[in-house]
Design brief:
13 helices; eight-stranded mixed sheet; binds zinc ion; about 475 residues; alpha/beta; single chain
């Protein structure tokens, strides 16, 4: 069946049927090498695929390539060169399921794409970094700055594979900060950012780079349907040590895809779906050559990433100092981390990221705080004996009295976070609650001395509602 003839565009059909192909065993960001191995074992059962071990990481974890297709145009995709950037790896697992399926509305698509292209996927190029949920590899080297020197086995694998395949197109799959917006003063975080990397300092456009720009232009058009005004492009300054820039130079049209942020999607499952749709749609554009008639003007008009997002902004609050009141906006950001050996949820450290006139910035959550005073969080005066006694506390009452931290005498040493809206001070004389730039974000918003909202570890709580409790929201320090 021809999809377009059936009156529905390919990407729409891909988008709507996504859940059918989604790899449901993977549902969060803290993906491990072992989980990827499980996916590869499943993929191996389908004899359309070949799996080749390309080599090993610094610490001896295997790095493999999954290939499918009989076409004479080789396409290479690699994900998770940075260990803490797994969104595209999740989408690749979905794509493996998609190509394993048959007898559905996509049989014609598979026949066309796999007849013209051979797709080569390297899921998780940096398994040592991935298992630590860190950007760099086990040598603490950023692989994306090792494309010229090629000292790391992971870098040698990527370079060697590109050279052996002479891939026509390359997809360099990353995650970027959630705090980029799609263009200056745009209230939307950039869900996806693209780049057709430059291959020289002059940022020349040759045929190789132009092809990447043409495909990206089409993808931007398409994504406006699913993430309107949430697509951006990366700065194209030439970086002589980066892989994208060098692979473009070596003759493979290179498309950088960065998974950014999306409101209400902390585990990036919607952005994963966008990756799935945009990659499968790209294969079609490349297979049928439809991108060749595109102008690069579409690429040019994609807005640049702008670092103007924060987690929370409270606007127009007053802050007292030396008996005088000042009008300020206060922004916080959350830095994600995860505990060693524990992968079920992110933990967060909140900090005050900006203060003053923040009218040009935006946040995942915003509050108009007119007539409210921002008041430093207080430490509860009674020292609590232990964790059990701590668990009996009425947190909402504490917040309504302006307390954002509790001192606990015998706290379990290894526990560095709590799931309730307060902080735990282990050092019984620790200071807490200053409203300082780059300091911890713990304060209350009061109207005529009554606490209306509380900001605890950077999270905003509305005390007129039942408090939303999230794992790992409070800090221990
Ligand atoms: Zn990256």
């Amino acid at each position: 069946m021809n999809l377009e003839a059936a009156g529905q565009s390919l990407h729409k059909k891909l988008f709507e049927s996504y859940e059918k192909y989604q790899e449901k065993t993977l549902a969060h960001q803290r993906l491990t090498h072992a989980e990827v191995q499980t996916i590869l074992k499943k993929v191996e059962k389908n004899n359309q695929y070949t799996i080749k071990k390309l080599g090993e990481s610094v610490e001896g974890r295997s790095i493999s390539m999954v290939s499918i297709g009989t076409g004479d145009m080789p396409i290479l995709l690699w994900s998770q060169m940075h260990g803490d950037e797994p969104t595209a790896t999740l989408a690749l697992a979905d794509i493996f399921n998609f190509f394993s399926a048959s007898g559905d509305a996509f049989d014609g698509y598979r026949k066309e794409v796999l007849g013209k292209l051979t797709l080569h996927f390297i899921p998780m190029l940096n398994p040592d970094g991935s298992d630590r949920f860190q950007r760099r590899n086990a040598l603490d080297i950023d692989l994306n700055r090792d494309a010229a020197r090629l000292q790391c086995p992971e870098s040698q694998i990527l370079k060697g594979t590109r050279d052996e395949l002479h891939a026509v197109f390359g997809f360099n799959l990353h995650d970027q900060s959630r705090f980029y917006s799609a263009g200056e003063s745009n209230e939307n975080p950039a869900a996806i950012s693209f780049l057709a990397p430059a291959f020289n300092y002059e940022k020349d456009i040759n045929d190789v780079r132009k092809r990447a720009m043409q495909v990206i232009g089409l993808l931007d058009d398409m994504l406006q349907e699913y993430a309107p005004n949430k697509v951006a492009k990366y700065n194209d300054d030439f970086e002589p040590r980066a892989f994208g820039d060098n692979i473009q130079k070596w003759g493979t049209s290179t498309i950088l895809v960065e998974s950014g942020g999306y409101i209400g999607d902390p585990e990036k499952q919607y952005i994963r779906k966008l990756n799935y749709v945009l990659l499968l749609q790209s294969f079609r554009h490349i297979a049928d050559g439809s991108y060749k008639k595109e102008s690069i003007k579409k690429y040019d008009k994609i807005p640049f990433n702008d670092r103007s997002m924060h987690s929370v902004i409270v606007r127009n609050v007053s802050r007292e100092m030396n008996g005088k009141k000042f009008l300020v906006d206060i922004a916080t950001v959350h830095n994600e981390y995860h505990e060693e050996g524990e992968r079920k949820a992110f933990r967060y450290r909140g900090q005050i990221s900006e203060m003053g006139d923040l009218s040009v910035y935006h946040a995942y959550q915003e509050l108009e705080g007119k007539n409210m005073d921002a008041v430093e969080g207080k430490v509860y005066p009674t020292v609590i004996e232990n964790e059990d006694a701590f668990n009996q506390l009425d947190y909402k009452k504490l917040l309504s009295e302006g307390y954002t931290a509790v001192r606990v005498a015998n706290w379990p040493k290894e526990k560095r976070y709590v799931d309730v809206p307060t902080n735990v001070l282990k050092g019984l004389n620790s200071s807490h609650g200053e409203i300082d730039l780059n300091g911890r974000a713990n304060f209350t918003l009061q109207e005529n001395g009554k606490v209306k909202y509380a900001v605890v570890n950077g999270f905003l709580y509305d005390l007129s509602k039942s408090l939303e409790i999230n794992e790992g929201n409070g800090e221990v320090y």
